[in-house]
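Subject: for your reference before the review

Hello V.,

The reviewers asked for a structural picture of the protein, and I figured it would be easier to keep everything in one thread rather than splitting it across files. Below is the amino acid sequence we used in the manuscript, unchanged from the supplementary table.
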Amino acid sequence: MQDPAPPTDKSEPPAPRRVSAGKLMLIAATAVLLGVLMIKHDLTTDSGPPPQPMPAAAQPSAPPTAASSASPSASSAGSPAMRRSPPVRIKIPTIKVDAPFIGLNLNGSGVLEVPPAADRNLAGWYADGVTPGARGNAIVLGHVDTMMGPAVFWGLGSLKPGDTVEIARADGSVARFAVDSVEAFPKDAFPDERVYGKTTDAQLRLITCGGVYDKKAKDYKDNVVVFAHLLPPT
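And here is what came back from the structure prediction:
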């Protein structure tokens, strides 16, 4: 589902995908037309509502691709960032998340696919964008629930500032992020630029569905977004 973005690292191949279908917006001339990062297949209602953060006012569009990332400015040169490497596993100790990743691609309509609903413990990442830990906004998506019950990001709305997110990467490194805020945005008023916009440091966006479940539309009305930044290596 954003200001200065990460530089294009020629030595690091881009990645593919994203979560949820919805409205489409063009965030930059160089950004691909993605589709609203809204997870539309979270249909379970018999488990009770998922934890919800405080509602926030806000708008959704397409996340920037790795190729559209700008070079870091002098002011961001000292901020922590890692070389490009695909994510393989995500852990969020506070809400007991421990799940593998799947890369998400665009479908024939230019909309980002969602993780398979058959596997509730699976996170997706936008593979044509920034990899978690690299400079820029890395986009990670997951279902809040499916027809089978609560899914990987069921507890996302209960995270608090300071909670940590650990993402193991294909090169053997681990990118550790600290949560800055957790907010809920109506899907028809999603803050595209803020969520997907370019950044000069390494940041992470975790996105799932939330808010009221519309039984007629079979979709949640909001998106829950976790904003986090990369911690220095320990």
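For the response letter, the relevant points are probably these. Residues 101 and 123 are 5 Å apart (CA to CA). The chain has one domain: 1-67+83-234.

Happy to draft the paragraph if you're swamped.

O.
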